[in-house]
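Table 4 source record.
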Amino acid sequence: MNSSVQIRTVSMEDVEAVRAVILRMLEDAPMAFGETLAEARGRSQQEWRAIVEHMIRPGATALLASDELGACGFLYADSANPEAPPETVVISRVWVAERQRGSGLGRRLMETAAEWSAQQHVSMLALGVTEMNVDALQFYEHLGYRQLGMRMPWPPDPTKQIILMGRELGA
């Protein structure tokens, strides 16, 4: 698609937009985000507000990309994840709509997250990818992420693994 995509930081006014994009993400890639479409659809408006509040609290940000057809990309970054090593931003919920795949939007989202992360004074960017998501693994490797030698069970199916990847900020 064309490059007239705008990326902006999510605010509390975006609760409905975040709900809509997360539902689209789960419809598009039901195995990629650690929750089911049914779970997401069952949330109340108050629960969605709490999710957005969590995503935009100090030390965290969410990015929403839109083109002329509407939302087409999303990313969540968290520098205060208690499960991450110090000085690490955990990137998750990265999604690009099919119509924008191959356009460079995924790279732009990741670069925007890296710029935000630099402002958080961290040294590492980290993320997890399910082992069966080969396209995502290749995408992140192309961006300079490397497997960290750590894996964890994938919650929906513990026989499958999440591969932890990272890259030094500025690398």
